[in-house]
Design brief:
The protein is of the alpha/beta class and 468 residues long. The protein has helices spanning 39-58, 61-77, 79-90, 94-111, 153-164, 178-189, 204-213, 223-235, 258-270, 290-302, 322-331, 383-390, 406-412, 450-456; strands spanning 18-23, 26-35, 120-123, 131-138, 141-146, 168-173, 197-199, 216-220, 240-243, 248-252, 280-286, 336-340, 354-357, 374-380, 395-396, 398-402, 420-423, 439-440, 443-444, 458-465.
């Protein structure tokens, strides 16, 4: 998600008075049009959440666990409806939309067990009788700012741990995913007490107001907006995490299963039209892997099913809007195109999956995130050279390594400067029970998800108990 990227995946670039959500496969189809609530409404929602927090936190682990489990059940009951809404509002291919909804339910069910986990430790004193205790406590109101590309999963993996830890939460979703967020809010409201979880749609005005009022902030979106969020939250002394862009590499060694690697990489380039921060945008072939990978990857990319996201067979649907489509097409202009997939006609914002080669050093494709189905094929002399290429960009989210020799991974590729390394797997894909996040311009602050997510939404207290 680059500074110039508008709308990916936060449209907080302008103040909005009316929120209009369009179907990217058919821009004439308006999903909803609602007024932006404004800064005052955000401040009021935060105050209501702050008032509700003591009761939510003091209700006990059983109550919080049951409530989060009820959210999971509600999502499962509405799974078909939610998947169809994600297809229509954000252009997510149906198979992937169904998987995302299932993941969202699993996230809530996973964190439903978290209230029962230990929240501290007991230590012996250094001298004399007594006890030393540590205990983790919720901050208060969590301000959550989320993108449009995972309209159910990302709000879930932010809100569920925050709520499990005893915080209340206010969510400001990207305008392009307003209908999805409001529907999720309806499901959550049926399971939680009033004001514990609130969704307020909007743009920059509402996002700024939330950052100015929340007690802990979690953001996912563009690098430019993320840096601004970090600066403003830090100036207030508020804990903040920001997950931003990626310019992810797939490294393929000569001993890899080339056909299998090509299939993984093609899917990671073109899946959901490349609109994932974990999408593959650079493919680094090491030594003798270049020639067979070049052929296999070109063939695999041409075979990617592109078309209507409502078709269960579609892998690459439309981009979120005209600017996103134009940006993807512009990124490969003037370069040597090795392969392109099919580009369907019709009114949607479609771009053909594209693989380019012989990209000049310093080209924007090797420095900026496109957020579209475009990737560059590069070559490296050896694994160490591949690592240098992979590390040469401002981002550090995820790298995939394809090899038949685990020793190479353990001893030769441990210098990769990315938050996640996936071996013989695509760069895309998230294990929600493990930490998620990147280095450099890809992320700021603690990791999300798993135990790390719970710890982010709590502060550590140290207690000294001495006898009278």
């Amino acid at each position: 998600m680059t500074p110039a990227a508008t709308p990916p995946p936060s449209a907080d670039a302008a103040t909005l008075t009316t929120l209009t959500s369009h179907n990217p496969a058919d821009p004439a189809d308006v999903i909803l049009r609602v007024p932006a609530p404004g800064a005052r409404a955000v401040a009021d929602a935060v105050e209501r959440a702050r008032t509700a927090r003591p009761g939510w936190s003091a209700g006990g682990s059983a109550a919080r666990s049951a409530a989060l489990a009820a959210v999971a059940t509600g999502i499962e009951a509405a799974a078909d409806e939610l998947a169809a809404l994600a297809v229509r509002e954000v252009g997510k291919p149906l198979a992937e939309a169904r998987a995302e909804v299932a993941r969202a339910a699993a996230i809530w069910r996973h964190y439903a067990q978290a209230p029962y986990e230990p929240v501290g430790t007991v230590h012996e004193t250094a001298v004399g009788p007594g006890l030393l205790l540590t205990r983790r406590r919720p901050y208060g109101v969590a301000g959550l700012v989320t993108p449009w590309n995972f309209p159910f999963a990302i709000p879930s993996w932010k809100a569920a741990p925050a709520l499990a830890a005893g915080n209340t939460a206010v969510l400001k979703p990207a305008p392009e995913a307003t209908a999805c967020a409001l529907r999720l809010a309806e499901i959550v409201r049926q399971a939680l007490p009033p004001a514990v979880f609130t969704v307020l749609p909007g743009g920059a005005t509402e996002g700024d107001a939330l950052i100015a009022a929340a007690d802990v902030v979690s953001f996912t979106g563009s690098t430019a907006v993320g840096r601004s969020v970090v600066a403003r939250a830090t100036a207030r002394g508020v804990p903040v995490q920001a997950e931003m862009g990626g310019l992810n590499a797939a490294i393929v060694l000569p001993d890899a299963d080339i056909a299998r690697a090509a299939g993984h990489i093609a899917a990671a380039i073109a899946g959901y039209a490349g609109q994932k921060c974990t999408a593959t945008s650079r493919v680094i072939a090491v030594g003798a892997a270049l020639a067979p990978l070049r052929e296999a990857l070109a063939e695999a990319l041409r075979a990617v099913p592109v078309g209507d996201p409502a078709d269960p067979a579609t892998v690459c649907g439309p981009l979120i809007g005209r600017q996103a489509r134009d940006r993807a097409e512009e990124s490969s202009r003037g370069l040597r195109v090795l392969a392109t997939g099919p580009a369907p006609g019709g009114p949607g914002w479609y771009a053909a999956p594209t693989l380019v080669e012989k990209v000049p050093e310093g080209h924007r494709l090797l420095r900026e995130e496109v957020f579209g189905p475009v990737a560059a094929l590069l070559s490296a002399d050896d694994p160490h050279h591949a690592v240098r290429i992979a590390n040469s960009v401002p981002y550090g989210l995820v790298t995939s390594v394809h090899t038949g020799n685990l020793d190479t991974v353990l001893h030769g590729l441990d210098h990769l400067d990315t938050g996640m390394i996936r071996v013989n797997a695509p760069t895309t894909g998230v294990d929600f029970h493990l930490p998620f996040g990147g280095t450099k311009s890809s992320g700021h602050g603690p990791r999300e998800q798993g135990r790390a997510g719970l710890e982010f939404y709590t502060s550590s207290r140290t207690y000294t108990l001495s006898p009278t």
